[in-house]
What does this fold into?
Amino acid sequence: MSQADWAFRPIRELAQRIRAGELTPTALAEHCLERLDTVGRSLNAVVTLTPERALREARQAEEELRAGIDRGPLHGIPYGAKDLLAAAGYPTTWGAAPLRDQRFAKDAAAVARLRDAGAVLVAKLATVELAGGMGYQQPNASLTGPGINPWNRSAWSGGSSSGPGSAVAAGVVPFALGTETWGSILTPASYCGISGFRPSYGRVSRFGAMPLSWTLDKIGPMARSADDCGLVLAAISGPDPRDPATLAFPSSYDDRPEAEPAHGFRIGVLDDALAHCQPEVAANFHAALAVLAEIATLEPVHLPTFPYTEVATLILWAEAASALEPLLQSGAVGELTAPEDRTGGYAGLVIPAVDYLRAQRIRRQIVAALDRVFSQYDAIVAPATAVVASPLDQRFRDYAGERRLVISAASNLAGVPAISVPTGFGERGLPTGMQIIGRYGADGRVLAVARAYQQRTDWHLRRPPEG
Amino acid sequence: MQEAENPLVMARLAVLRARFGSRLDESQWDDVARDILMLWRAAEELQHVSLDYADPPMSWLSCRPEETQR
It folds into this structure.
């Protein structure tokens, strides 16, 4: 394995090589820091490098492993955290120019849990400013500039977890932490050709993360494979009294073959979504279904009729305006990068309470109706996004038109787990993806379907051109 | 502009203008008005969903399916 391969390799292999003495956590961290400073910065994927902490944590991992203290598969593995997540002492900018000097005294819970698992924080990675909560409409909406796609440098990386998406895709870090309120893990994962997992709402503590929408925000892993995502999820999951939404779920990841159903999976296919997709996205999805047919019974499925997008819009805009009201009140939003973000939060301040409550009352119906559908399947699948990544110089609506998949709003309202896995390539050589969505709490089953798919395909092993 | 013709949109805009004064220029206030109109239309769509008097909202921090069974 050449040094250039390191951050492209599976976490299990890196862990094995560290224990075999073929690789040290320090060498791995130094390699990632160098890649972050060169390749990562060229993709606008980096906000802050954390070399002091990285080398300290890497040395500690080496000493512990030498002493026979093994914290598991992430011990000594470098990673980056989306810059919505606090890392004690380092800037946590939320991607926003007016907050470039913001710092917190404590690690976010997910960062602390990775520290306890022996992982090595090497960087704070780029995000769309304020996680896109001010309604950005084009890629240039971050203090680090537009996220650049490593597969085609004139294309966007996707957002709001832009840095995690492009950094993992370019082999800069083996994995990263992203966040999703409405598409912010699955979209950049699909656009960048990696695996991005959105856990069930409440599985991962949001303590220390920027709040955008208390009833929609989730934190999850972005990595090269579903198996890597599962390893990270197992480390960051668990109840936390500092985030009252968290629950003591059963184990989040079981990679044993017996965890898979003996008679294959039962998978629902959201055919309706295909009408809104680019031809290559649809063709690659059909090819992915042919692979899934080897391991599953496939059945067409339809979403119950609800105004998903409108419900999600009202909830998100109202909660974001409340969470970020200090920035609106102070006028700090006027310093944001995207012109539309300087005005985008104000309207949320005057949503009538009855409109917000009606949305949350309908949401209760949505959650119950979707659970009845999802309970019949191991997973439901659809294209991850209707289009590939937009050009850097175009507004999203000008490129995609009205091609937006309603399943994204529906599944985020229901708080159900989902993963995006690569399915091939489309327009302008850009990756396409499939989302695999499960019943609430069935995170392990979603990962099992994704893992089985990736055991039969190699799209997740493809690498973008260097430089 | 459509939003200028909608008195409910203009009323909300007036509230924001009263609160934030001259912070935004006129073209920016037009953008805010468009956002208000979009949110007003979204709320109108929600009127088509039937709700019983007793249907409560999802609670603040819990959005789990089992809550809907209570």
Summary: The mean pLDDT of chain B is 86.
